[in-house]
Amino acid sequence: MLSRQIREHPLLGGKELLVILLRRLAVSIPLLFAVSFLTFLLVSLTPGDAAYTVLGSSATPDQLAALRQQMGLDQPILVQYLNWVTSALQGNLGHSLITGQSVSEAIFQRLGPTLSLVGIATVAIVVIAVPLGLTSAVRGGRLATSIDTISFAGVAVPNFILALFAIPVFAVWLHWLPPSGYVPLASSPNKWALSLVLPVATLAFGAVGIIAKQTRAAAEDVMSSEFVTVQRANGYARQSIIWKHVLKASAVPIIAYLGVVIVTLFSATVLIETIFAIPGLGGLAVQASSQGDLPMLLGVTVVFTLIIVLINIVLDVVYALVNPKVTFR
Amino acid sequence: MTTRRGTVFRTLITNPVSILALIWLAIVIIGMLIVIPLISRYSPTEQDLAATLQLPSAAHLLGTDSLGRDILARLAWGSRVTITGVVIVAVIANVIGATMGLIAGHFRSGLDATFTAFADMLQSIPALVVLLSVAAVTSRNVTVVMVVLGVLMSAGAYRVFRASTLNIRGELFITAARTSGLREGQIMVRHELPRLLGQLVIQSSIIASLAIVVQVGLGFLGIDAAPPNPSWGGMIKEASTSIYTNIWPLIPTSAVVVLTILAFSTLGDVAQRAVLGRRRHNGLSRAKISRSVAKTAARASGATVSATQVASTAASAGAAAGAINPMLVISDLTVSVPKDGSSVKLVSNVSLTLLPGEVVGLVGESGAGKSVTARAALGILPAGATATGSVVLDGQEVLGASEQTLQKLRGSKIAYIAQEPMAALNPAYRVGNQLIEIVRTHQKLSRKAARQRAIQLLETVQIKNTEHVLKAYPHQISGGMAQRIVIAIALSGDPDVIVADEPTTALDVSAQMQILDLLRTLQKERDLAVLLVTHDWGVVADLCDRGIAMYAGEIVEEAEVAPLFAHPRHPYSMALRASDPHAQKRGGRLHSIPGVVPPPGTWPSGCRFADRCGFATDACREQAVPLELIEDRHAVRCIRVDEIVVEIEELRHESVTGERTAVRAEAVEHDALERVTREQAAADSAAVESAAVERVTIERVSVD
């Protein structure tokens, strides 16, 4: 079913990599504008504005008006937006209403932990889930059932709840791992790795089951196709049929699913970073949201979207590499 | 992925797992949302600092939290926030997703591309971060946050509804509705929308399960009920502050959240299974093969003369002539697959023999069991199938042999050519890669030498532009070319037997002729034994030494090609012959056999062809009909075989007078064949209107 969806997918059915990438950009650039503009629009519709947030409820109307003028809040929304876009394109996303820190700077500082978290989780998911899914497609039986169970558990147990149970078990009772906190890679690679084990494991847990299940479905789809019968019947080595032929032929739907999963991983960092006290983008978003720090929130949202767009572009290239129907011209 | 409402709802209330899920949801919705708030003696915000962090007791069924509040009461009151949120998300996501999906799937073209691009955009948005922004600017207005979540989640629903609509739209009854003058809007609302209801159940459950995760997550971040008012997410947040000291409050709270998510995703899963049906066949998983002595099976079948004997007669005749051993002997092969708890036979008691250099044709309609028989010769059975009987290839038993043994036999002793050449090559690898791989599997050669051998093989199958073809991907070559490459793959291990399963069916006419020529040439040059599966009588005449007609899983007639052609004796062979387009008289009626082959599991206990046979009598339906030798090397499974000859003669004789004698005789003969089954033919045309029946392929023999 999925592979069919993908074959019929207007974005994935392209013939040339360039066309695929242009299509991706055609969707991505409006997306970035849409996300930023809608967030902007929402802000303008809010009764209490940025000036109010900065000065608090004790401010006099005169003070508010003065600050509004200073911040450009008295101008039409479209002008405000264009001003924001102009400076954003130059790398300036404004300043925090709370601390006055540059938004780009704050985001840049927080980028490392989030990217490590999602990056390692993605690698873990692929390395564990794809072989698991493929093996279960071949063997079926108990392995397939346990993947179903893991995948079901992954869906049913939200990763932040899993994290809350993992901390007392692995950090408090067993003392294997630190309960929370983040050590930068530069200061101690060893501690960096240890500090990421629980966050990565809880982040990846649900996705492993999902990707394994999708891999199994895609591989089963491929294995029921004629070429597998022809290869078996004509003496191709079994290992080669499974690990070479079936794997590559089922790669396209797996990659498409991986794209969806990575997006959800980024969303999930918001909770995971909060629980493990990791100074990343997700935590920054939560902090900015609770403080009503709108420029910061806007900046984080746009950067998150940008990262996802970039990941999708990378996946498009990977997709082109495994799909011979895409040509490089 | 179309759905029938009835199936989905019925499955949900009969499947034990989904019943458990429904019970849990009833507990949450009726018990927690409605009843407990009415009867509980605790208010959800009432603190009791003397009784904090208590384990379950008679006073507090689920214990108390860090402020001594009753956990059960808080869970019950807190369910309101989550359930309201989930309902908002599910309704919005489904309404938007289904509407857009229906429109895109129905009209396709520009709208489809636009909507799908839009769905792509929505799915690239980091949902939780956007929701945090929305929460911040709306001063944590939970309703608005959930509405936005519903919009974001509509993209996933849109994809599913679009795909389902695409499937439904392709079905025949939609075309019929359009032909009968219904407007597009009417078709969408009256015909397509109802079919999406099953999908609506599935999507609602899946969306609900995902929405709870986000809703509780937001609650965890403090974006739903304002403290001290309870919410599930907020309670988990409170419980998380004491996990180092007392983990109890986290347990019931998490359990309720997890069970509710589990219940919704279970419902979605069960409903989806009901729609998708059983799992697909899985070619690589090992089939269970049980071998038994051929005699047992023969006795069970009650056949007086088994096909084995016929085959061995043929074989011994051959052996007497040249003292040669048969290449392939299939004896009393019965292949069954499990279905709904019982086992259904796909072929029963099939026996055949293939001598070296001999070409045997297996003829019959789709569903006769030809392919199952042919593939069994390679030790390949349908997934989950069991086989009894034996398949001996050049003295070696194939059924029950280890995968290793089979891998050695395949390609070097016996090879396979498939029906769909375009699907027979791996689309992900270049032709050269696939061909060189198999060359190196059979022979230890360097890469360079293997490439040379691959080029040789391509020349053997009369491909000229070899370098170009080696570099091509399968989608860049024609069907005829692909079939040549498959033949090259089959020849790469220098086999003695080739199993060719409808090798020309999928090709256009000129490619058909070329491939048949190629097969004939290769067969002569290499003295190959060929088991050729076909429904094309012409191919049998062209290539084969012997022909075997199969019907509903058994052999009904076996003879050398000349007598089988000139004087087919089984009514089914006659009908096949009559419906062969090559054999038609100019201007004559193209005959087709009315009705369909009964699918496996529905075979009658008497003659399996009786219901479609114009000569059938009550006696035919009484008991299983044995395959009997009627003359040397000619076996027929028909108890009226002699009477029918007489009957046809009489019919001819009666109409000998008059100018249109021949035509009349032919017509009478056809009428006899059709007599019994006219009603069935009527039912046939009615089937066109019913999409359900349409799914059963009505494949007439005379299709080409």
Task: Please give a structural write-up.
Chain A: It is found in: Cell membrane. Chain A: InterPro entries: BPD_transp_1_N (IPR045621), MetI-like (IPR000515), MetI-like_sf (IPR035906). Chain A: It is a multi-pass membrane protein. Chain A: Pfam families: BPD_transp_1 (PF00528), BPD_transp_1_N (PF19300). The complex is a heterodimer of chains A (329) and B (704). Chain A is mainly alpha-helical and 329 residues long. Chain A has a domain of 227 residues: Orthogonal Bundle (MetI-like fold). Helices cover 77% and strands 0% of the residues of chain A. Chain A is built from 14 helices and no strands. The two termini of chain A are 30 Å apart. Chain B has three domains: 254 residues, Orthogonal Bundle (MetI-like fold); 193 residues, 3-Layer(aba) Sandwich (Rossmann fold), CATH 3.40.50.300; 47 residues. In chain B, the strands form two sheets. Chain B has an eight-stranded mixed sheet with strand order 6-7-8-3-9-10-12-11, sandwiched between helices. Chain B has a four-stranded antiparallel sheet with strand order 2-1-4-5. Chain B contains 28 helices and twelve strands. The C terminus of chain B is likely disordered. By secondary structure, chain B is of the alpha/beta class. Classes of the chains: A mainly alpha (329), B alpha/beta (704). Chains A and B meet through helix 2, helix 6, helix 7, helix 8 and helix 9 of A and helix 4, helix 5, helix 6, helix 9 and helix 10 of B.
